[in-house]
Amino acid sequence: MPRLPGGFDIANIIFTRRNLLTASGAVIATAAARPLLPAEAKGLAPTPTMRGGANNYRPGAPIVERIGNGGFWMSGTVRRAGTGDPLPGQRIQIWAHTTEGYERDPQSHGATLTDENGVFRLEMPQIVPAFGQPHGHLAYDSGDFETVFLRPIMASPKDKSLEAHFVLKPV
Q1: Which of 65, 112, 66, 113 is nearest to 88 (CA)?
Q2: In this structure, what are the phi and psi dihedrals at residue 22, rounded to the nearest 5 degrees?
Q3: CB 58 within 8 A of CB 67
Q4: Rg (CA), the chain
Q5: Distance (Å, whole) CA 72 – CA 123
Q6: Are 168 and 140 in contact (CB under 8 A)?
Q7: Which helix (H) or strand (E) holds 28?
Q8: What does DSSP say about strands 72-80 and 161-168: parallel, antiparallel, or unpaired?
Q9: Cα–Cα distance list, 80 to 124, 158, 164, 169, 170 (Å)
Q10: Counting Cβ atoms within 10 Å, is residue 164 exposed (0-12), middle (13-18) or buried (19+)?
């Protein structure tokens, strides 16, 4: 009879739904017991630009308190490649197809700055599906680091927020 590493006899292992769920739960619990902390971000590779991320990009969109009437939150973090250090004061541009305009419309674009922890957050109108997918667009384009365009897709068009995280490589 075949044996697994460690000498376990395959014939004596019973694969039941309960055993599989219990083992899966143990793996998840182990991972959740030690959450990823910013201090563990060492050795981070730079974020690559996503295909379609630059669609309808408008260089120099203004820094705003909110895009339109709000109701939806776009947020995330900006960190330095390699060290994982937070990058404060970085400009992130955000745009999307929303209940108030198309992603090509100037009023659908705005920018915000990261705080001292490299966190950004900008309120905007509800994102709605475009080309079948509810998605946002984000760009880092300030010049100290390589330009990166992101196009994260929402899990559901009913979601009220979306996160995107940048790891930037110095120019």
Answers
A1: 113
A2: -65, -45
A3: no
A4: 21
A5: 6
A6: yes
A7: helix 17-33
A8: parallel
A9: 26, 32, 15, 6, 8
A10: buried
Mean pLDDT by 10 residues, the chain (171 residues): 52 48 43 44 87 93 97 98 97 97 96 98 97 94 94 96 98 94
pTM of the model: 0.74
| Alpha-carbon dihedral angle through residues 74, 138, 152, 167, given to the nearest 10 degrees | -100
Tokens of 87: 């990058």
Q: In degrees to the nearest 10, what's the CA dihedral of 87, 88, 94, 100?
A: 150
Listed in sequence order, the residues at least 6 apart from 15 whose beta carbon sits closer than 8 Å to its beta carbon are: none
Structure tokens at 44: 């981070």
Tokens of 31: 């991972």
91-96 and 161-168 as β-strands: parallel, antiparallel, unpaired? Answer: unpaired
Taking alpha carbons only, the member of 115, 108, 47, 104 closest to residue 72 is 108
- Look at residue 20 and give its three-state secondary structure: helix
Distant-in-sequence, close-in-space partners of 111: CB < 8 Å, separation ≥ 6: 61, 62, 63, 64, 91, 92, 93, 94
